[in-house]
């Protein structure tokens, strides 16, 4: 079956506050995005890679690819004003009648190949596969009255990407007006009245969001190299 991956990197990284958006910052000697694309490519070079970045960054990305000798084949697509719009643009660029598509944040370079692989397998079986992890900490629910209440953490999961889907189903799901609660692709899919299937993600698969995440990312790379 055809397999594609949409790597969304159309954001500006406001919470990182760096002069260049976080997806282009270097960790371990190359930009974050290159690590992310490589995980998919090394797992299976036949996966069609679609990279979504802001249109204004197209030439900058081309320069980075030349500078770092980056040769992983990928198609570049213009991002939108929100993550939802960026994913939609990525989906519209895939003309296959059917197949599977993994949607992954460009700023999650530590996704494991096993999670990506499991995502494709389970999405082929169930129509969707959403990577999640159990909570390690206790949690409390806040109220408007400034109170807080214990919550049973076994009923909660932290949501990661990849979120992998049957291509036809997810394209159909994205053919809607964007809603405020569409923070990921699972919410768009279930808005269609479909149930999402959860798979185990990997704890290292952090979303690089704020400056301390960059330090942790460096640490994870050093640990991988055995330094
Ligand atoms: N218009 C947008 C907004 C976000 N994203 C992507 O969605 C992923 C997760 O979003 P987030 O971490 O929130 O990234 P930013 O929007 O860049 O960060 P911030 O909210 O701090 O500005 C990132 O890979 C980001 O580039 C995107 O493709 N298009
Ligand atoms: C898609 C996502 O990474 C899953 O955890 C997340 O929902 C993105 O949210 P953000 O607040 O826009 O970073």
Automatic annotation (TrEMBL):
Tagged with keyword Methyltransferase: no
Membrane-spanning segments: none
UniProt keyword annotations, A-Z: Isoprene biosynthesis, Nucleotidyltransferase, Transferase
Catalysed reactions, as listed in the record: 2-C-methyl-D-erythritol 4-phosphate + CTP + H(+) = 4-CDP-2-C-methyl-D-erythritol + diphosphate
Site (Positions MEP for the nucleophilic attack): 153, 207
GO BP, one annotated term: isopentenyl diphosphate biosynthetic process, methylerythritol 4-phosphate pathway
Single GO MF descriptor: 2-C-methyl-D-erythritol 4-phosphate cytidylyltransferase activity
Pathway of action: Isoprenoid biosynthesis; isopentenyl diphosphate biosynthesis via DXP pathway; isopentenyl diphosphate from 1-deoxy-D-xylulose 5-phosphate: step 2/6
Pfam families in the record: IspD
Origin: domain of life: Bacteria
Gene3D superfamilies: Spore Coat Polysaccharide Biosynthesis Protein SpsA, Chain A
Function: Catalyzes the formation of 4-diphosphocytidyl-2-C-methyl-D-erythritol from CTP and 2-C-methyl-D-erythritol 4-phosphate (MEP).
HAMAP family documented for this protein: IspD
NCBIfam families according to UniProt: ispD (TIGR00453), PRK00155.2-3 (NF001186)
Family: Belongs to the IspD/TarI cytidylyltransferase family. IspD subfamily.
Protein's name according to its UniProt entry: 2-C-methyl-D-erythritol 4-phosphate cytidylyltransferase
Natural source organism: Echinicola strongylocentroti
């Amino acid at each position: 079956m055809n397999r594609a991956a949409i790597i969304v990197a159309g954001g500006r990284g406001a919470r990182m506050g760096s002069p260049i958006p976080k997806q282009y910052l270097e960790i371990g000697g190359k930009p974050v995005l290159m690590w992310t694309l490589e995980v998919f490519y090394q797992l299976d070079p036949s996966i069609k890679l679609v990279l979504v970045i802001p249109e204004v960054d197209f030439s900058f990305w081309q320069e980075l690819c030349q500078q770092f000798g980056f040769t992983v084949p990928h198609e570049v697509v213009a991002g939108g004003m929100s993550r939802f719009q960026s994913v939609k643009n990525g989906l519209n660029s895939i003309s296959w009648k059917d197949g599977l598509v993994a949607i992954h944040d460009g700023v999650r370079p530590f996704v494991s190949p096993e999670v990506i692989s499991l995502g494709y397998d389970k999405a082929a079986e169930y129509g969707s596969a959403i990577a999640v992890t159990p909570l390690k900490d206790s949690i409390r629910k806040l109220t408007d009255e400034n109170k807080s209440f214990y919550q049973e953490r076994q009923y909660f999961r932290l949501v990661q990407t990849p979120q992998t889907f049957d291509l036809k189903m997810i394209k159909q799901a994205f053919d809607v007006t964007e809603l405020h609660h569409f923070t990921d692709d699972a919410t768009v899919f279930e808005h269609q009245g479909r149930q999402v299937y959860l798979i185990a993600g990997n704890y290292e698969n952090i979303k690089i969001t704020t400056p301390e995440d960059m330090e942790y990312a460096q640490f994870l790379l050093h640990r991988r190299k055995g330094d």
